[in-house]
Amino acid sequence: MSGPKPTRTQGDLAQMLETLLDKGVVINADIAITIGDTELLSVKLRAAIASFETAAEYGLEFPLGTDLEAVAEASDRASADAPAGEQG
Predict the structure, then answer these.
(1) From CA 72, how far away is CA 59, in angstroms rounded?
(2) Which tens digits make up the pLDDT trace of 54-82?
């Protein structure tokens, strides 16, 4: 007897990326390799993936050369588009 099979539509990947950029994601990892009391390798990773609008809304810093006026305009548009209960 075979059960239901998963289905996928073409919009799944695009919709997932849109949601990811809209909500944002933060990756925070600390990796250390030690033998006894001696630390051989230490890796610290901090990454944020988001759209400019989401990043500006949460106050993330932008790289040098970023057009901050465009970011501010996008952030203002995102705030104006949000429902009244969701504005920060």
Answers:
(1) 11
(2) 887 888 777 788 787 877 777 676 666 66
